[in-house]
DNA sequence: TATTGTTATACTCTATAACTATA
DNA sequence: TATAGTTATAGAGTATAACAATA
């Protein structure tokens, strides 16, 4: 139905992992950490961290977003957003702009340098993605994302109360 | 081919995520963190942490394992293993036993209490797993694990140099 | 000389709580 | 009073480096 299951479950040396591998969360953690270790140096070579990379991505996509909303998008507290935005602003990749009618908040926008940075960072990470997904067919790639999203949505904290009633 | 793609990609409020959702690693991170947040309280209610839970799982499955090997299984340094083993030993869930012929290392074994603890902890986490995977068919569940393992194996740090030549 | 376990230390990430300035 | 941003602080998790005992 899918394929002969010829995947050697990546178990270390001569010891068994089955007790943990039975849990979807463990397989997910291992796969995620492996990918993360692969990509991180590439991101850092550009002067970014995963957190600033992600923030830049969201700001590019949602111009004039506020820090509070950015925090919600990244699932981090406002206090953490400050540091990330400080870092991006200090690198001249984004700017904090005044908001008409509310002097409390900032409208975050990527600078030109920020847009260029995102373009190249995005491209390089895409290359990693392609390398890591090389053995998966296009259908398998979308399927994997779909399954991950469904798992995320199924867990209690998964937003979207929209059940299909 | 697979199913109508009716998965609402869990995007926050009114803002777009697509820049990040394009990357398999981001979807994996989000799914993993959601599952982790779901399961953690259950594990902690038993007096365990994710790290001690995992270590107990490996020790149960590989009796007389040494700390160094345990570290390799868990992908953490030996110095970190010490703290985890201290904690498990302090809770009387495992014991450090003498090894014939090598007085440097310990043979780690679960106590009876440790085996009972693992049984109940395993059962409870399985329940979370089932809840989180509720919307996936049995085939989809194995498929998801399979895809995750293939991604993990594909990344540079993925062990198993065994290509199918 | 190399290895096992250990200790001390530091770094990253993130959360909590209290503060300020606006609303 | 409530909210946006800020600051200070603390905790979890993990890594690095140096050390003692043993191989």
From TrEMBL, chains A, B:
Question: Which Pfam families does the UniProt entry name for this protein?
Answer: MarR_2
Give the GO molecular function terms. Answer: DNA-binding transcription factor activity
Q: Which InterPro entries match?
A: HTH_MarR-typ (IPR000835), MarR/SlyA-like (IPR039422), WH-like_DNA-bd_sf (IPR036388), WH_DNA-bd_sf (IPR036390)
Biological process (GO), any one: response to stress
Q: Where is the HTH marR-type domain?
A: 21-153
Q: Which organism is it from?
A: Rhodovulum strictum
Name of the protein: MarR family transcriptional regulator
